[in-house]
C-alpha cells in the first residue's frame, strides 16, 4: 500500500475546474515529483492532500488515514512547506523552530537528529530574525520547521522556485538525504530539469495527470525519434519546420528546436535539404535523446 | 502549548516597531489631549453690542455678559449695520441690541427691550451662545432687582441644578466615553488586522497544518489585546484621577466587568472581519466603516434621544451605545449592573450573536 493514495480527486473554483479526476500513489521512502506549469493545479492538489481544503469528489489517504475524516491525525504526521516563505519574519531562526516544535508537542533537541544536517548550516544565524535571512537560508529554515516533528511524509510545494541554480542543486541533495531516513517526499516543481532527480513523477496540466512513471520510464515511452535543429533566424525556421513533410511536432527549446518526426517519411538529410531549399543555409540538425520536457510536450499535446 | 502560543504573540507584539508605543500613547493622548479638544463647552463667543441707549444700566448689562467668561467683546457701538457686517464677515457670533428706551422700559418692568441675534452656521455654538446670553440677561435683571430691593415680574428665579456632573464639566462627561473608544479600537480592530496579516504572510496556512486547533490559535492571538485593553482602562482611570482629580463614582470593578462584556462583542466582530477579508487593506476599510458608525451612533458625542426614530433604531445594534452608557453611568452616577441591566442585556445579546456568527463563518472557511 502506498504512503499517499489519491483516487479520483476533483476540485472546482466556481466555473474553473482546477483538478479533474486525479489519481496517484506514492510509495514509502520515495521522492515523488509533481511536474507541471504554473496554474496546472499543483498547489490545489497540495492543499487537498495536506487537509487544508476539501475535494469536491474523490478520496485520498496519507499513511492509511483519510484526508477528510482523519485530518487532525494526518496533521501530526506530515510536514508541509508552502510555496511562499511563510514563517514569522519577526521571530528569530531559533524562535521559529522552537515555535513549530512546540506546536507539534515536541522539542528541537529531541528531533535534532532529523534536522541536524540542515540546521547546522543555519545555526550560526540562530538569533537572526527570519525576515533578515537570505533566500537560500530562509528555505533551509522552512525545511527545518517542516521536519522538526519527524513527519512520515514531507510535502514541498515548489520549494525551488526563485532559488538560484547552486542552491537548487543543494536542495535536491538535501532531499535525497531526507529520503534515506525513510521519509517520503512529495515535491512539486515547474522546472522540468529537476524531474530526473525524482524517483517517480507525475506530469500535470490543466488539472489532469497526463503521465506518471519513473523518469527513465517516461523518457523510454516517448514514441517518436527526435532531432535538434539549430541555426540563425530561429522563428521563421520554426514555421517552416512545422509544416514540413513527416514532422509530427516541433517546439522551441532554448537555442534549438526539438523536432519529432516519422522516420518512414523523412529524416535528417531530407530535412536539411528542405531547409536549404527554403533559404536556411546555416542550419544544423542532429539526433538527440528525448528529455522529460519533450515527453511533457508530447503528452500535453495529445 | 498555550503558553508558547501566547509567548509568541507577546514577543511579536513587543517586537513590533509601533504597537507597544501606540498602546502606551493611545490612553495618554486620549486622556490628556482629547478631553480638552472635544470639549463642547463653548467659550470665546465673539460678541457685538449695538447699544442704542448708552446708559449706566446698559453698560452694566454688557459687563455682566463679558464677566461670564463666555464672551469676547468685539465691538460696542451704535450701528446695527456695522454689527451685521461683522457677523457676515464671520467676525462676530452674536449680537445684542439694546433699545434706546432700555432704561425706562426696565424701570417700568415692561418686557425685555433687548434683541439677540446669533450666527448658527455652527449650530452648537449658536444655540449654546444664545442660551448663555439669555442667562446673562436674566442674571442682570435678578441682580438689578435685588439691589433695587424691589420684586417684579421678572424676578421669577429659575435655578438649575445639574445632577451627577454639577459643574456641567464636559471633560468629566467625556472621560468614560473616551475610555470606551480606546478599548473598542484595541480589542476589535487590532486583532482583526493581526489575523489578516497572518493570512497575508501565509503563516496561518503553516499553522493550519499543525495539530493546533484554530480556536486555540485565535484565542491566543486575542489575549494580548485583551490585556492591553485592561491596561488602557487602568491607565485612563489613573490619569483621570491624577490629572483631573476625577474618581469613578461607582465600583471600579463594574467598569472592568463591562469591559469584559464589550471585549466579548468586539472580539466576535474582529474575528468576523478577519474571516471575510483576505488582506489588510480590505480589513482596514471595513474597520473604518464600523468605527465611524459606532462612534457617531453611540451617544458619545450627540445624545441618542435627539436622533430621529430610524437612527435611534440603528443604535440598538451598536455595542458602543451600551458600553458607553454603562461606563458613564458607573463612572458618573455610581450605577451597578442591576441599574443598567439593559446595557448588560444589550451587550450580552450582541456578544452572543457576534461570537456565534464569527464561529460559524470561521468553520465554513475551514
Describe this entry's structure for a reader:
The complex is a heterodimer of chains A (302) and B (366). Chain A folds into 2 domains: 4-216, P-loop containing nucleotide triphosphate hydrolases (Rossmann fold, 3-Layer(aba) Sandwich), CATH 3.40.50; 221-301, 2-Layer Sandwich (Alpha-Beta Plaits). In chain A, 34% of the residues lie in helices and 28% in strands. Chain A is built from 10 helices and 14 strands. Chain A has helices spanning 42-49, 71-77, 93-103, 112-122, 135-147, 165-180, 215-220, 234-243, 268-277, 292-301, and strands spanning 4-13, 16-26, 31-35, 57-62, 65-66, 78-81, 153-156, 184-189, 200-205, 208-213, 225-230, 247-253, 256-261, 284-288. In chain A, a hairpin with a 2-residue loop joins strand 4 and strand 5 (65-66). In chain A, helix 3 (93-103) packs parallel to helix 5 and helix 4 (112-122) runs antiparallel to helix 5 (135-147). Chain A is elongated, with a radius of gyration of 23 Å. Chain A starts with a strand and ends with a helix. The mean pLDDT of chain A is 88. With 366 residues, chain B is α/β, with parallel strands linked by helices. In chain B, 66% of the residues lie in helices and 7% in strands. Chain B contains 15 helices and 4 strands. In chain B, strand 1, helix 4 (56-67) and strand 2 (71-77) form a beta-alpha-beta unit. Chain B is elongated and about 90 Å long. Chain A binds chain B through residues 50-52, 72, 75-76, 78, 80, 82, 84-91, 95, 98-100, 102-105, 145, and chain B through 1, 4-5, 8, 11-12, 15-16, 201-203, 205-212.
Amino acid at each position: 500500500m502506498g504512503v499517499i493514495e489519491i483516487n479520483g480527486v476533483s476540485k472546482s473554483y466556481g466555473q474553473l475546474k482546477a483538478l479533474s479526476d486525479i489519481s496517484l500513489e506514492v510509495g514509502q521512502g520515495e521522492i515523488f515529483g509533481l511536474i507541471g506549469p504554473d496554474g496546472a493545479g499543483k498547489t490545489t492538489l497540495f492543499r487537498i492532500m495536506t487537509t487544508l481544503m476539501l475535494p469536491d469528489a474523490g478520496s485520498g489517504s496519507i499513511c492509511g488515514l483519510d484526508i477528510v475524516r482523519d485530518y487532525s491525525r494526518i496533521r501530526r504526521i506530515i510536514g508541509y512547506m508552502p510555496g511562499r516563505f511563510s514563517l514569522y519574519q519577526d521571530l528569530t531562526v531559533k524562535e521559529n523552530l522552537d515555535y513549530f516544535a512546540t506546536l507539534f508537542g515536541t522539542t528541537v533537541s529531541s528531533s535534532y537528529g532529523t534536522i541536524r544536517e540542515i540546521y547546522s548550516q543555519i545555526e550560526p544565524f540562530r538569533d537572526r530574525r527570519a525576515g533578515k535571512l537570505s533566500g537560500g537560508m530562509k528555505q533551509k529554515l522552512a525545511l527545518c520547521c517542516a521536519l522538526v516533528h519527524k513527519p512520515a511524509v514531507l510535502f514541498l510545494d515548489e520549494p525551488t522556485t526563485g532559488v538560484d541554480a547552486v542552491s537548487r542543486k543543494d536542495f535536491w541533495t538535501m532531499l535525497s538525504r531526507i529520503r534515506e531516513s525513510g521519509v517520503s517526499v512529495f515535491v512539486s516543481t515547474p522546472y522540468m530539469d529537476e524531474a530526473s532527480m525524482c524517483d517517480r513523477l507525475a506530469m500535470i496540466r490543466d488539472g489532469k495527470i497526463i503521465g506518471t512513471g519513473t523518469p527513465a520510464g517516461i523518457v523510454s515511452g516517448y514514441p517518436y525519434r527526435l532531432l535538434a535543429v539549430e541555426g540563425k533566424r530561429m522563428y521563421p525556421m520554426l514555421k517552416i519546420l512545422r509544416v514540413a513533410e513527416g514532422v509530427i511536432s516541433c517546439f522551441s527549446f532554448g537555442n534549438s528546436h526539438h523536432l519529432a518526426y516519422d522516420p518512414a517519411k523523412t529524416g535528417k538529410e531530407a530535412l536539411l535539404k528542405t531547409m536549404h531549399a527554403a533559404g536556411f543555409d546555416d542550419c544544423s540538425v542532429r539526433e538527440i535523446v528525448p528529455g522529460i520536457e519533450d515527453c511533457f510536450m508530447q503528452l500535453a499535446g495529445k | 502549548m498555550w503558553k508558547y502560543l501566547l509567548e509568541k504573540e507577546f514577543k511579536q507584539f513587543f517586537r513590533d516597531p509601533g504597537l507597544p508605543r501606540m498602546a502606551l500613547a493611545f490612553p495618554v493622548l486620549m486622556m490628556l489631549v482629547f478631553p480638552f479638544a472635544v470639549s463642547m463647552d463653548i467659550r470665546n463667543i465673539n460678541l457685538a453690542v449695538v447699544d442704542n441707549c448708552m446708559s449706566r444700566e446698559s453698560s452694566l448689562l454688557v459687563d455682566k455678559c463679558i464677566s461670564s467668561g463666555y464672551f469676547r467683546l468685539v465691538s460696542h457701538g451704535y450701528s446695527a449695520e456695522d454689527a451685521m457686517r461683522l457677523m457676515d464677515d464671520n467676525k462676530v457670533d452674536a449680537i445684542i441690541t439694546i433699545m434706546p428706551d432700555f432704561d425706562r422700559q426696565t424701570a417700568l418692568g415692561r418686557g425685555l427691550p433687548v434683541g439677540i441675534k446669533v450666527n448658527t452656521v455652527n449650530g452648537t455654538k449658536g444655540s449654546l451662545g444664545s442660551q448663555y446670553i439669555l442667562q446673562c440677561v436674566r442674571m442682570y435683571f435678578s441682580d438689578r432687582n435685588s439691589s433695587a430691593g424691589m420684586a417684579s415680574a421678572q424676578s421669577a428665579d429659575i435655578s438649575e441644578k445639574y445632577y451627577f456632573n454639577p459643574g456641567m464639566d464636559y471633560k468629566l462627561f467625556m472621560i468614560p466615553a473616551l475610555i470606551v473608544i480606546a478599548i473598542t479600537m484595541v480589542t476589535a480592530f487590532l486583532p482583526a488586522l493581526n489575523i489578516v496579516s497572518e493570512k497575508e504572510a501565509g503563516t496561518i496556512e503553516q499553522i493550519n497544518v499543525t495539530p493546533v486547533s484554530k480556536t486555540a490559535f485565535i484565542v491566543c492571538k486575542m489575549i494580548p489585546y485583551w490585556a492591553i485593553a485592561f491596561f488602557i482602562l487602568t491607565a485612563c482611570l489613573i490619569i483621570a484621577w491624577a490629572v483631573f482629580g476625577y474618581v469613578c463614582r461607582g465600583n471600579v470593578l463594574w467598569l472592568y466587568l463591562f469591559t469584559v462584556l464589550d471585549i466579548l462583542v468586539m472580539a466576535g466582530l474582529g474575528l468576523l472581519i478577519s474571516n471575510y477579508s483576505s488582506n489588510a487593506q480590505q480589513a482596514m476599510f471595513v474597520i473604518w466603516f464600523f468605527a465611524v458608525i459606532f462612534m457617531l451612533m453611540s451617544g458619545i458625542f450627540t445624545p441618542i434621544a435627539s436622533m430621529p426614530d430610524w437612527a435611534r433604531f440603528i443604535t440598538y445594534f451598536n455595542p458602543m451605545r451600551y458600553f458607553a452608557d454603562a461606563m458613564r453611568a458607573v463612572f458618573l452616577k455610581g450605577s451597578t449592573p442591576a441599574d443598567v441591566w439593559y446595557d448588560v442585556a444589550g451587550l450580552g445579546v450582541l456578544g452572543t450573536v457576534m461570537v456565534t456568527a464569527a464561529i460559524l463563518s470561521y468553520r465554513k472557511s475551514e
